[in-house]
């Protein structure tokens, strides 16, 4: 979650998969979430969820 109270998620794809998954961080501004370790992430982007407005999608980053 950002300082403006909008939730933030990462969309990502792991090595060996074509499935795009989401990873939410709703714990507050300046925090991070460490999930379970698995295959490396090879593609990701950040998405800001906004109420009553379109979500803001960042560009894809590749490893």
Could you characterize the architecture of this molecule?
The chain contains no helices and five strands. By secondary structure, the chain is mostly beta strands. The chain is globular and about 35 Å long. The chain starts with 7 loop residues before the first strand and ends with a strand.
Give the helix proportion (percent range). Answer: under 10%
In whole angstroms, the N-to-C terminal distance is 25 Å
Radius of gyration, rounded?
A: 12 Å
Element-by-element helix/strand order: EEEEE
Work out the strand percent. 35-45%
* Total number of strands: 5
**Number of helix segments?**
0
Helix/strand-derived class?
mainly beta
- The global form is globular
Give the uncertain stretches in residue-range form: none
Q: Can you give the mean pLDDT?
A: 78
Largest β-sheet summary = 5 strands, antiparallel
Write the layout of secondary structure elements.
Layout: E1 8-14, E2 21-25, E3 41-48, E4 56-57, E5 61-62
Antiparallel strand pairs: 1-2, 1-3, 3-4, 3-5
Quick description:
The chain is an all-beta fold. The protein is built from no helices and 5 strands. Strands 1, 2, 3, 4 and 5 form a 5-stranded antiparallel sheet that branches.
Features of the shown structure:
63 residues, mainly beta, 5-stranded antiparallel beta sheet, 5 strands, 38% strand
């Amino acid at each position: 979650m950002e300082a403006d109270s909008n939730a933030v998620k990462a969309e990502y794809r792991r090595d060996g998969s074509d499935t795009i998954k989401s990873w939410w961080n709703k714990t507050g501004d300046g925090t991070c979430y460490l999930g379970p370790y698995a295959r490396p992430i090879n593609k990701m982007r950040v998405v800001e969820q906004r109420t009553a407005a379109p979500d803001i999608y960042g560009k894809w980053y590749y490893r």
